[in-house]
Structure formats: C-alpha cells, structure tokens
Amino acid sequence: MDAEYQYIGVVTHYFDRLGVAVIRLEQALYQGDWVAFFGKHTDFEQQVRSMEIDHQAVTEVPGGEEVAIQVDSPVRKGDKVFLIVESAA
Predict the structure, then answer these.
(1) Given a cut of 80, is residue 34 above it in pLDDT?
(2) Which one of 3.90.1210.10, 2.60.120.10, 2.40.30.10, 1.10.240.10 gives the CATH number of domain 2-87?
C-alpha cells in the first residue's frame, strides 16, 4: 500500500509554547487522521490526537473552519497541510 497526500489546508498561526498549530481547513479533518506538514523548513507526519475550536475539544471539523491541533514539531505560518490516505496499489 502506498500513501497518497490530499491537500486540506494551511497553517495560519503557531503557538510555540503550547506546540499548537492553527489550520484553516479546506476539507474535513477527523481525530485519528494522519496528516503531513510541508514548508520551506517543515517536513513531518503525525496522527491528529487533539483538536479544538474556540477552546472546545472536537473530534471532527468540516472544511471552511479553523482548528487548533497539537503538533509534534514546530510549524510555520504558510506551511501546507495534507491528509495522508492509504491507496491500494
């Protein structure tokens, strides 16, 4: 099985003390999804373990919303976010 990357949004803010990225989503995102962050200095993948909207925990977020998620590594404003999906090859 190969992984496929689907663009879902962009980082609009990063809170370094909290290790939290704010992402403006173009597609839905669910807790447990695997995502990849790519930018000039950013390149890592992680599972979405914690998401919040307006300081309220959520398990799914529709496209068109901004969501805060805990990230494993620093990200930067403008980094692109991709959903990792398994494709049957």
Answers:
(1) yes
(2) 2.40.30.10
